[in-house]
Amino acid sequence: MSDELLRVEDVVKHFGPRRERVRAVDGVSLELAEGQTLGLVGESGCGKSTLGRLVTRLLAPTSGRIHYRGTDIARLTERRLRPFRSDIQMVFQDPYLSLNPRHTVGAIIGAAVARSGERETRTRVRELLEVVGLDADHVDRYPHEFSGGQRQRVGIARALATRPRLIVADEPVSALDVSIQAQIMNLLQDLRREFGIAVLFVAHDLGVVRYFCDRVTVMYLGKVVETGTAQEIYTRPRHPYTQALLSAAPDLSVVRTGTPRPRIRLTGDVPSPVDPPSGCRFRTRCWKADDLCAVEEPALTGTDEHVAACHHA
Amino acid sequence: MTTTPYLAVRDLTVAFGDVRAVSDLSYAVPLGRTLAIVGESGSGKSAAALAVMGLHDPATTRITGSVTVGGAEVVGMAPAELRALRGSRAAMVFQDPQSALHPYFTVGAQIAEAYRAHNAVSRRAARAHAADVLGRVGIPAARRRLDDYPHQFSGGMRQRVMIAMALVNDPKLLIADEPTTALDVTVQAQILDLIADLRREFGSAVVVITHDLGVVAEIADDVLVMYAGRCVERGPTRTVLGAPAHPYTWGLLESIPVVAEKPARLRPIPGSPPNPRTPPTGCAFHPRCRYPERVGDTACRDRMPELTGDGDRLSRCHLPRPDQVFRAEVLPLLGTGDQHVR
Amino acid sequence: MLLYVLRRLASAVSVVVATMFAGFGLFFLAPTDAAGAICGNNCSAERIAHIRASLGLDEPFLSQFGAYLTGVLVGRTYEAGGVVVECSAPCLGFSYQLNQPVTALIADALPVTVSIVAGAATVSLTVGVLTGAFAARRRGRVADRVAVAAALGLGSVPFFVVALISALYLAGTVLPRAEHIPISEDPLGWAAGLLAPWLTLGVVSAAAYTRHARAAMIESLGEDYIRTARAKGLSERRVVYRHGLRAAITPVATLFGMDVAFQLTGALFTEAIFGLPGLGVLTLRAFAVFDLPVLMGAVLVGATILVVMNLVVDIAYTVLDPRVRLT
Known about the structure:
Chain B: Its main location: membrane. By secondary structure, chain A is an alpha/beta fold. Chain A has eleven helices and twelve strands.
C-alpha cells in the first residue's frame, strides 16, 4: 500500500492470570491507508474492541508491533506517545458514559483543543460544534442537557478537536435509536471525507459496516478469519464464519422475496477465549470442519483484495 | 381470522402521572400468529406490553381501555386472578436475560418455581418438568444443567432459559420484549428460529416487541409501528414493509443500511423523538416529517390524524395517496428499487 | 477453596502475631510501672527491683516478647509468692493481682461475651432485616416512615443511655434479671438471663441494619428479576420475601462483617451495665489496676475473634452469592 497509515503486525493481547488467561487478541495483523475506512466485525468476545483500544494505545499489547506512519507505537512510553495521541482519536459506544457529566461540553471539547496546542480555544470549540451539527451557542451546556444523538455528536467533536488522521470508532451508533443512527453515520461519513480522516470502524452491525467501510476485517475468537474489500466480503464471502454471519443478519429482503432465503444456522455459542479450540478456532461450530482443521491452524490466503483463513474455502 | 383473537387490546392508554406513555392503542392477535410492535425508545412499546401482563405498579400508573386475554379482561383484574393468568396463560420473555434471571437461584429452581406457582405438583415432578422444557428449548444435557446458576450460561443459553421459564406452563400468549437485542447476530438468529418453531408447535399467539425492522421481517405476520405512544401504522408485515403508508415508517426504512447492498446515502429522519412530557400538537411526527406542506394549511400541526384504512391495513397520516408518494419519492432512494416491491 | 482458606488462615495468624507484637510493645513502653502496680503504695525501691527481676521486667524487650510467645505456643512457668505455677499452652501470662493464669480468667469470661454478642447479633439481624424489608415494601407509606423514623431515633441515642434505662427499668421487671448461667448447665436459664442484654444491644444495632436492609431491599425490588418473578405469577409475598430479600441479604452480610468490632465494644458496655462477668468487665478491671497480662490477653482474644469473623463472612459470601469464587 503506497500511503500506508497504520500497520498492525501480529499483535497479541492477553488478560488475566496465567491459569485463566483470556486470549482477547491472539496474533492479528491489518493495514489501513490514509483516508481509508476499515470495518472490524465479529461477535462479542472476538477481540475487535480490544484491538481498537490497542491501536489507540489505551491498552498496551502483550506482543506485536503497531506501526503508525512508520513508527512502532506498541511500546512507547506515555510521554513519547503524546504526539500520537492527538493524531489517533477514539469515539466510544456510549455517549452517556464517555463524557464527564460535571463539565460543560465547551470545557470537554476545549480541553482536547488545548491539548493539541491550539490558541483560540473558544472560537475553535464553537467551530467544532457547528461542524458536527450542533448549535454553537450550546457551548456552556452540560452533557445531560443533550439527547443521545447530540451527545454522540459532542463525542465526535471532541475527537476532531486535535485534527486527527485516524479515528477509531468503537460501536459509535449501536447505543442510539435507528432514526438517530443514520444521522450519526452520515455525519461521520461527511467528516471523514471533508478532513481525509482514516477510520477503524468497530461494529457488530453488518449493515452499518457495509454502508461505511471500504474494507472489512472479520474476527473470530481473537483471530482474523477474513479480510477484503467490502464488495468482496459481502458478495463473495469465503470463510464459513463470514458466510454464517451474513446469513444470520436479519434482513428486510425476506419481505421482497416472500420466501426466506437459504440460511446457515450455526449451533452453539462462541467458545471461551480462555481455552480456544486447537487448530482452526471456528471448527467447533463449522459444518465443513474435518480432522485437518483440528490439528492445523489455517493461514490467511488469497489475493490482495481478499484473504481468508480456511482449509476449505 | 374468523375466531375471536386470543389477545385483544382496545383503546389502551397508559399514563405515569401526567405523562402518557401509550395512547388509544388497539390491536388483536389470534392464536398461531405473530405480531411485531416496532418503535424507538420512548415510543411506549414496552409500557404497552407490560400493561397486557398487568405488570405496572397500580399506585403510580393509570390504565384505561381494555385488554382481554382469552376473553378475560386484564385492566382492573383482581390481583389473585391476575397472578393466576401471569406465567400460565400469558407469559413474558424480557430483553436482558442477564438481569431478568435471579442471580442467586439455580435455573432449575427458577423454572420449577414458575411451574409450581400454577400446578399442585411435588418438587420432584416440577424438577423433572423443568428439565423437560430446558431440553425442548435446545439446552444440551438439560438435566445436568438444572443446578447451574444463570451466570454459568452464555448469553444465548440464558435467553433459552428465560424462554423455557416462559413456556413451562404452555402459555397461549407469549410476549417477547426485545428478546434478541442483547445477543450476538448468530445467536439472535437461533433465538428467532426457536420462537418461530415454538409458535408453530404450540399454536400460541406471539407478540414480539423490537426496534429492529430486520427482526420484524424475519418473524412477524403482522406489524404495528408505534411513535410517541400511538400506533401510526399497522398491517400485514409484507404490506407494511413493502409499501409503507406512513412517513415515519419510510424514514425508518431509509435509515437502515441493509446488508444486502450498499446504498449511496442514508436519508435519516431529522431531529429526535419527542419528549413524552411535552408532546407536539397535532400529529406527533409533524416536526420531523418532510410532508406537512404537501398536506396544505396547518392540518398536521393542528389535528391528530385518525387511524384509517381498509380492514387490517391502517395508518395515521393526513397525506393523501401515500402509496403514490412512496413509489415516486421514497422507493428510488432505497437502493435498487425492486427490493421493496411487493 | 481449601487453598484459599489455608492462605487466609496463614494471613490471620500473622495478623494476630503482629497485634501481639504491637500490643506488647505499647505496654512495654507505657509510662506506668507494672512492678509498682503489683507492689502497691508504700513500696520500697528494693522490693520493686526484686519484683521486676522475678517477673523478668528488667530484661530487654525482645527477650521478654520471646518468653511471652513461647508461653503462648508451648507454655511456661511463673513464680508467684514463692510458688512455681505451671502455665500450660496457650499461656497468656499470669495475673499477679488476681493470682491466676490469664488463660483461665479469659476462659471463664469469654463464654459470657460470646453469648451476649451471638444473641444480640441474632436479634439485630432478624429484627433489622425484617423491619427493613417490611419498610421497603411499603416505601413512602406510613409504615415505612414510622420504621425509618424509629431506626433513625434509636440509632442516634447513645447506646449506654438505652442500656442504662433497660438495666434499671426492664431487667428484673418486664424481663428476667440479667445473669449468666452457663448454657451447658441450663440452656433455658442461660437464655432467660441474657434476654435483657440481648434485646438491648440487639435492638439498638438493629437500627443500622434496618436502614441498610431497607436500602438493599429497595434496590433489589427495582431489579429486572423481580419483574420476572411477578410475570411468573408468584404471590407478592413470595416475590418480596424470597426473590427480593434473597438478594438484599448479601450487602447486609457485608455490614455485619464490618460490624463485629462494634458489637464487641457494645458487649463491653452491656456487661458493665448489666453486671455480667464477661471479657469486657475483665478488661475494664484490668485497665483500672493496670493488670498488663490480662489486658494483653484481652487484646489478643479480641484480635483473634475479629480475624476469624472476617474469614467466616468472606466464606459466607460464596454461600450467599454463587457468583463469588474465592481464589
